[in-house]
Amino acid sequence: GRGCPLVVRGTVLHFLDDPGDPPDPATWELFEDGALVVGADGRIAWTGHARDLPPGLSAGAERVDHRGKLIVPGFVDTHIHAAQVDVIASYGEQLLQWLDTYVFPAEARFDDRAHARALSGFFLDRLLAAGTTTATVFPTVHPTSVNAFFEQAEQRNLRMLCGKVLMDRDPYAPAYLRDASVAQAEWETRELIARWHGRGRLGYSITPRFAPTSTVKLLTMVGRLWNDHPDLWIQTHAAENEDEVALVDELFGGRSYIDVYDRHGLLTKKSLFAHCVHIDDTDRTRLAEAGSAIAFCPTSNLFLGSGLFDLRAAREQKVTVGLGTDVGAGTSYSALVTLNEAYKVTALRGGTLSAQRGFYLATLGGAKALDLDGVIGNFRRGKEADFTVLDFAATPVLARRTEVSESFAERLFALMILGDERAVAATYVMGRRVHERAARG
Ligand code: GUN
Ligand code: ZN
């Protein structure tokens, strides 16, 4: 908890459901002169118009004034790599070559406990500076990387998902970064689950890297492990790049890439598939039936030249979608920058992405994709008070665009397109301020 209650004033926006397209105002609450009350337990006690603040709730509370700024639930990043801090912005390759050239050598260093600890701390501080308070995270194949990540997340009291990367297939998992055997991988995974799953705000996600680095035996083990523990999560990559899709067809055959995971029992209500750029309607139907979710990672898909995700098709076929930065293939930790690119990718697909739906995807939509909407994602009473304070005047360009805007929707859209870490004035976790933007000038 945080000790005593907290009253935060500012413009409060949160979502109760998917706004759809065009956005339905019944799906959100906006209090332009609003307030949030956080209880001593760090949970939301009340939210509404500042003038309606119940005196009983705010008696003896600490008060923070963010008037003029926008308070939204902490952003949820549904796909990111803690071990790729040092390979963000690596030049010139598409997925499979990029992994071999840059990613695998960088991940090999996470065998070292001090390195894993330092980079996990740096990584989490970048998330908080971007206003992101929850993520589902790939570490490396080394148990050390999982322990380092969860220790750093626990120190910051963050709601985070993570799990040891599983990769055992020769030659796509290189010898220096490969599980020695499926038996050992399972044993290490079970031990990490026992240590971390459900401890404080942490959850364990079984993490086979992707089909090309997996043997049939490994995928079979993952399906069985989840059946034994259906409260765990599963995360992997799927159908990101055309060469990758062709390779999976060669290695596994079958109807499609998604079908490979389906055959091994990996399509569950707790599963999250990053990318899904190259999938078809049958795949989407299966994902929707299973209750699995997709992480849409536009900065990554553009950076690696992977392709344009079809957000409209996912929506039409009722597949749950969250937003992922996918650092280090992604080029920003910021949900706002990611939404800016999501808007452009959607435009290239002939669609639109309203600011309301964008902020939904980055908050409650992400929480739903992670099956964490019971505890985070909006300001319903009893939810954990993770939130972000955004500044419409963060830069001269954004300030000017905000000033000439005629509606809140227009200001929100300018923030989505022009915002980045500079727009994050402060980040709160369980009602405690954990990040404050440095003074400018
Ligand atoms: N597919 C398998 N591993 C990775 C990874 O580390 N990054 C991305 N973008 N795709 C992957
Ligand atoms: Zn990834």
From TrEMBL:
Positions of the Amidohydrolase-related domain: 71-434
Cofactor(s) required, per the database record: Zn(2+)
Pathway in which the depicted protein is active: Purine metabolism; guanine degradation; xanthine from guanine: step 1/1
Superkingdom: Bacteria
Keywords linked to the UniProt accession: Hydrolase, Metal-binding, Signal, Zinc
GO MF entries: guanine deaminase activity
Record-listed E.C. numbers: 3.5.4.3
Catalytic class of the enzyme: hydrolase
Catalysed reaction equations from the record: guanine + H2O + H(+) = xanthine + NH4(+)
Alphabetized Pfam families for the sequence: Amidohydro_1
Entry's cofactor comment: Binds 1 zinc ion per subunit.
PANTHER family per record: GUANINE DEAMINASE (PTHR11271:SF6)
Family listed: Belongs to the metallo-dependent hydrolases superfamily. ATZ/TRZ family.
Function, in words: Catalyzes the hydrolytic deamination of guanine, producing xanthine and ammonia.
UniProt-recorded name of the protein: Guanine deaminase
Originating organism: Streptomyces ficellus
Phylogenetic placement of the source organism: Bacteria, Bacillati, Actinomycetota, Actinomycetes, Kitasatosporales
Encoding gene, per UniProt annotation: guaD
